[in-house]
Predict the structure.
Amino acid sequence: MLKYIIRRLLMLVPVLIGVSILTFSLIHLIPGDPARSMLGEKATEAQLELLRADLGLNDPYIVQYGRFLGDILQGDLGQSIQSKENIAYEIMHKLPATIELTIFAMIVAIIIGIVAGVIAAVKQYSWFDNISMTGALFGVSLPIFWLGLMMIWIFSVKFNVLPPSGRITAGTGLQTITNFYLLDSILTLDWQAFKDVFLHLLMPGVALGTIPMAIIARMTRSSMLEVMRQDYIRTADAKGLKKHLIVFQHALKNAFLPVLTVIGLQFGLLLGGAVLTETIFSWPGVGRYVYLAVLSRDYPIVQSTILIIAIIFVLINLVTDILYKYFDPRIRYD
Amino acid sequence: MKKRNPFTLFGFLLIMLLVVSACSSNTSSDDADAGNDNAEATEDNDSDKTLVFGRGSDSITLDAAIPTDGESIYVTNQIYDTLVRYETENTEVKPALATDWEVSDDNLEWTFQLRNDVTFHDGNDFTAEDVVFNFERWTTSSEFFYYGYMFGATEDNMKGIIDKVEATDDYEVKITLSEPNAPFLQTLAMPPFGIASPEAVEESGDDYFKNPVGTGPFVFEEWIPDDSITVSKNEDYFGEVAKVDQVVFRVIPDNGARFMELQAGSIDLMNGLNPQDIQTAESDEDLQIIRRPSMNVAYMALNTDKEGPMSEKLVRQAINLAIDKEQLITLYEGIGKAAVNPIPPSLWGYNDEIKDYDYDVDEAKKLLAEAGYADGFDITLYTFANPRDYMPQPKVTAQAIQEMLKEVNINVEIVENDWDSHLTATENAEHDMAFLGWTGDNGDPDNFFYVLLDKDNTKVGSAGNVAFYKSDAVHDLFKDAQMEMDQDKRTEYYMEAQEIIHDDAPWVPIAHTTPPLAGKKGITDYLPHPTGSEPFNLVEIE
């Protein structure tokens, strides 16, 4: 097992080199450049040239890429071209925001998705099955910005029960340690802040979790249906085993592998793909950070942040693979 | 029995929801009219008057001398003072850090008397040496964009037209120019020329952009990137001390969501309103719409340099005739006014004797026939994807023009790009026609005319004049106006230039907008400035 993990981690190297080359080429392929976007439409050519030279944008691409790679190898993620802010510092603040939101969204999605999927499978063709699966279809097709705005309208404007946006109310005075605010509020035993952060998480979390929830529900249902028709389930039933034991102990564990794959993939996707949710709910996360950096051609931010997200994506997949073994002991990695 | 397990989970979820809703209803009952968490928190900080301003994006830097984006300048305008400031409602200048000034007969030496009662937010006294320090700092790097841009700095001469800045006394500064510059005072009033505390600049080094220290009406407190910037009242301000204790600039990227926050009461004031929300705000008895006076122009540049129909004056005039501007203005949903000239009517020098081209399809067809294009032709119209202040619906506007020009047999292909790509494409002269706009910097007509229509700015790859309009007559008038100090004379030059431009028709001027802000009813004395930002010290909130 350990050997397997080490082997997988070593595979990170070529993957990351690939990702960095791809990101570098793509971002440099789009027209426009950071000097232009910093100085705006008002700059003269002389000024642009001067700034480009200062920023090293006139060097050949290979030199620029080499410089980027060299910095990364020394653990330096570089500086934002626009703001001069240290990228590592920004990521330390924005990645936790996104991860916290993603974990929350995934917990909501997994709990509701699996429960709904299992019940729908056990009670196939029942009213619950029909309603939840139609609901899931809606869930996958709902545009997130619409859902988000509707939620803000209902819960913040109409009923005033949830804060409309942001991570925390200004002036709450939470002492940040890890920048995972929920965790920080627990660590500092600041329950006022905990409640505040939790309330802020609810709407964006549910909005972001909707699509994965629907996918997980549908996947769980179809996978469960397949397993429930297996001989060993009938045997267990014939033996007089209690139904919930059959469903949860025997069926679900076996039906879980494909669901786990979906969960792993969705998790990774949400990390970089929460841009819309982050925009609607003013969530200062990493998705929007990269999105804005692409718009302003802030090359270092795009390159470094995507690299970090890629690493996390690969690690999540590794964890998923290791979890397979728990759910299906027949799987051997050595 | 069979169902117990799933229901336990559901039960758990239900309880969680109940707990949450209990928590939140507590909040609203605790605080009957605040109702909302954010409002509650501000109430908690004793009786502080906090103004929360919602906007679409964060500041990039708080070093006054660097930014070109409106959102950064919005905040630096609170923290710093300039030698002179704009009047609250127009672009004439009034004393600020300088109380008085005079210019030598050759228009080259400007002597400023400074206030002797000003301290920086870090406690240091403000003196003439600090002014010298700032001017010298601005010449040290190309990132101090506005200095280079307004004073013509180049790689070989980073000082541009400012030869020397000397402290002739503790509270007297002499600035020597290498050539007369008519808009000089108006330029010095621009927020990028805010005076920073030299000690803070040196102490913070590379981190100065997030630890700004000036002399302005508000002191910088905190910046949570992509979330909020907080500034608090400067009790010792030499001008009018702010009426609110704190201003929080909150980032709420989505226009619709931001408006909902205003309705929910978690912000007090916002910019970047969706046009369709203006009506809602106007009919809401708790809200008000505040309009910023126009200092911009939206136009369609006709690439006069491109071989083919666009290089013909008759064709350009025909296009002007074929466009129904009143219809285009309806797309501005109440925030725009049809443009006739390249500068907005609020600027001095505006020629109001010029009559706009009538909407006259027959006349347009006649001119096209005269130019030999009776059967029409194919051209491109370059536009940008996202709304900008001066053009809320670029795509629909482009489609409307496409329809109008079809009437005169001109077949328009619309090319839509994101903003950066659009700028690159238009500067490279790829377009036949292109949408662009301009927001004035210093309230001087030169800042529109010279940049947008002078032949000096037509170099492919970096053109500000994307009509690539190269008129020697106009160039001479612009240059004369730059050298002349007398405003009446300058007005004459600009009047004449506008007539030539109108006849040559390098543009179809489209609109000037009055960008709306929305705020709670209780806000008074918020006076939006034409330049795009204003200090908040006069604002009152109930």
Chain A has 14 helices and no strands. The mean pLDDT of chain A is 89.
